[in-house]
Write a structure and sequence with these properties.
The protein has 635 residues and is of the alpha+beta class. It folds into four domains: 221 residues, Porin (Beta Barrel); 124 residues, Immunoglobulin-like, CATH 2.60.40.10; 139 residues, 60s Ribosomal Protein L30, Chain: A (2-Layer Sandwich); 113 residues, 60s Ribosomal Protein L30, Chain: A, CATH 3.30.1330. It is built from nine helices and 35 strands. The strands form six sheets. Strands 1, 4, 5, 6, 7, 8, 9, 10, 11, 12, 13, 14 and 16 form a 13-stranded antiparallel sheet that branches. Strands 19, 24, 31, 32, 33, 34 and 35 form a seven-stranded mixed sheet that branches. It has a four-stranded antiparallel sheet with strand order 18-17-25-28, with no helix packed on it. Helix 3 crosses helix 4. The longest helix is centred in the last third of the chain and has 22 residues. It is elongated, with a radius of gyration of 40 Å. The N terminus is likely disordered.
Length: 635
């Protein structure tokens, strides 16, 4: 009988297992592991394909396939990987014994093929509901133990060149629970050999093309550890989750709250002066900056950097501090640079070498990427910075981990001036989303994002109660189209409840041509973030005086409106910061009034009420210690 005809018993066995699968059963994936004995009844399907053996000067040819019943025993382990995949390795003893018949002489070739078997198998569970039915696929590796044959039960001899058995296994099974920790598992499988029984091709013996596929019908009894009983609170109420927004509001530059009906985007002739922070901030106990505080180029990219192509964004500009300084040092070959490495005043103070390592890293970066003569750069180290931030808060300690940069040539640290005849400015430019989340469960995660035309503009995520989200709209961030801004808040709880709230804000776009067509008033806006104050200081430095003389005063015309806003970072008391911001704004206002006596100036002390930059980073907090001068001139 041919092998294909022998697949019929396997089909019968699989159908039987499927009928058993109608029973309800626990899932073995609920256990950390299961282990137990395994017994199989086998059908060994010998396919000799021309075994030739010389016996008493007679050449015997065994060509016909034969089926021999047999058995295998072993140990089965079940190790769940997930609710769908279970690793099911097994070891044991497998017999492939059989009897082949030579048709011409009716001689019998009796074989003794015993193997030590190792089988890595993967079971696929819960494909058709949460029950015990599974499919399997894997490998079978057999190491020969016994490898003998006899002809007509005489003259036992060894089969030469016996090979390690490799076979593939496919099958089906069902796990039937007998108790909370014991499973009875009937299983049927088909073994497809990849190797021959022997590779012998001797003069009087030929075994080379002999294969033995195998059908197995087995039974396993596996045991698992006692499952921990889950204590389910009685009468636990269902999860209630309410997600929305208490308020969506805008701030004007003075920190006054306004309703948000739409966002007006207007093409305006716009100039902005961006300060350059003379610091590069480091991670704790690290000698080089993190990617979130400084973008570092490779030497091969040096020619790609241009100051003129920088985006009009203060954070992104100050993430390129080293490249800006390297470029300006190259353009000013007689300029010097002093690099001072500092420590945070807390845990780092024990590592005195770290400050110099930080200074050396910055020097090597400039030398290697911008070909700066190393003799032009002086490095030194100190402990705490000469003008430290607060040691009482983590924000302040973080800011003291830095490298300070200075030069006798003020050009190296001049602010970046970006001017354009046509930039898109948004009004309002600061929008705050105040979420409302109510639940009787614990919040496990939340995500908030703002987008326009599928382009993500802002994204935040975290756990616990989501905070308020302030969004400062950068110049040119919104498109030159009347496409609404979409926002979305998604909240999940520990018990698996998830809710999402979405909304949109209309955008009205006023292009230059539209303003001319509709005869709408046009204007020129100049914005100067000219002063970066030291922590808790309101003094205007001599360098800031030069910036006011060079940039601010020439932009003020007889019909200009000048507004001055003082800001702080989030460190400290809110009311104290408001007064500090007011002192900063008044200090700048007094300087301008001395030189532009007939100009009306409005000053505002905003403080930390409006965080104009991301205060989660040292760069954002330093940029927030500023005074912004807005000069608006009608065209």
């Amino acid at each position: 009988m041919r092998i294909m005809k022998m697949k019929f018993p396997l089909v019968i066995i699989m159908m039987t297992v499927l009928l058993i699968g109608k029973l309800n059963a626990q899932n073995v994936a609920e256990f950390p592991f299961l282990i137990g004995p395994n017994v199989n009844l086998n059908l060994n399907m010998h396919s000799p394909n021309g075994i030739r053996i010389q016996n008493q000067d007679v050449n015997l040819n065994f060509n016909d396939n034969a089926i021999s019943p047999d058995f295998s025993v072993g140990l089965l382990g079940l190790f769940p990987l997930s609710n769908n995949f279970v690793l099911a390795p097994r070891i044991g003893y497998n017999r492939l014994n059989g009897e082949l018949t030579e048709q011409n002489t009716n001689s019998k070739l009796n074989t003794s093929l015993d193997y030590f078997e190792i089988s890595p198998v993967l079971q696929f569970h819960n494909l058709f509901g949460n029950n015990g039915l599974y499919f399997l696929a894997g490998l079978e590796a057999g190491i020969p133990i016994s490898k003998n044959y006899t002809i007509n039960n005489q003259n036992e001899q060894q089969i030469p060149d016996i090979a390690t058995r490799l076979a593939g296994a496919i099958g089906i099974g069902y796990a039937i629970p007998l108790s909370e920790t014991i499973f009875l598992i009937p299983e049927a499988s088909y073994r497809i050999p990849f190797t021959k029984v022997s590779t012998s091709e001797l003069q009087n013996q030929y075994f080379k093309d002999w294969q033995v596929p195998q059908i197995r019908a087995g039974l396993s009894l596996v045991f698992g550890p006692k499952k921990e009983s889950k204590i389910v609170p009685k009468d636990e109420p269902p999860v209630a989750l309410n997600v929305g927004f208490k308020e969506i509001r805008a701030y004007d530059r003075a920190g006054n709250i306004q309703p948000v009906n739409n966002i007006r985007v207007e093409d305006i002739q716009y100039t902005e002066l961006f300060p350059l922070i003379p610091y590069v901030f480091m991670e704790q106990n690290q000698s080089q900056p993190s990617p979130r505080s400084q973008f570092l180029i490779e030497k091969s990219q040096r020619g790609e950097f241009r100051i003129s192509t920088l985006e009009p964004d203060a954070i992104r500009i100050n993430n390129r501090t080293l490249d800006i300084i390297g470029s300006r040092m190259s353009e000013n070959p007689n300029s010097d640079l002093t690099i001072t490495g500092t420590l945070d005043g807390k845990d780092e103070m024990k590592n005195r070498e770290l400050a110099m390592q930080r200074a050396d890293f910055v020097k090597n970066y400039l030398v290697n990427n911008f070909n700066i003569n190393p003799q032009r750069i002086n490095t030194r180290s100190i402990g705490l910075p000469a003008k430290p931030s607060s040691l009482n808060t983590e924000d302040g300690v973080e800011e003291n981990r830095r490298v300070e940069l200075s030069s006798s040539n003020p050009v190296i640290f001049e602010p970046i001036l970006i001017s354009s005849d046509n930039q898109r400015l948004a009004e309002p430019s600061i929008i705050e989303f105040v979420p409302l989340v109510e639940t009787n469960d614990v919040i496990s995660s939340w995500e908030f994002d703002i987008s326009q035309s599928d382009k993500t503009l802002k994204r935040s995520n975290g756990s616990d109660i989501p905070p308020s989200f302030q969004w400062t709209i950068r110049p040119n961030e919104l498109e030159s189209k009347q496409i609404p801004v979409d926002y979305r808040l998604t909240v999940s709880t520990q018990r698996g409840v998830k809710k999402q709230v979405t909304g949109s804000i209309p955008v009205e776009y006023f292009s230059t041509s539209r303003k001319k067509t509709q005869d709408l008033p046009d204007k020129i806006i100049s914005k100067y973030s000219l002063v970066l104050f030291d922590f808790d200081k309101a003094d205007v430095s001599a360098a800031d005086m030069e910036i006011i003389d060079k940039y601010v005063l020439p932009s003020i015309k007889f019909n200009s409106t000048v507004q001055i806003y003082g800001y702080t970072d989030r460190i400290g008391d809110e009311e104290y910061n408001r007064k500090l911001a007011e002192r900063r704004a008044n200090a700048v206002s007094n300087i301008i009034k001395q030189k532009k006596k007939d100009i009306k100036i409005e000053t505002f002390g905003v403080g930390e009420k409006v965080l104009i930059f991301d205060n989660d980073t040292p760069v954002g907090r330093h940029l927030s210690r500023t005074v912004q001068v807005i000069v608006t001139t009608p065209k």
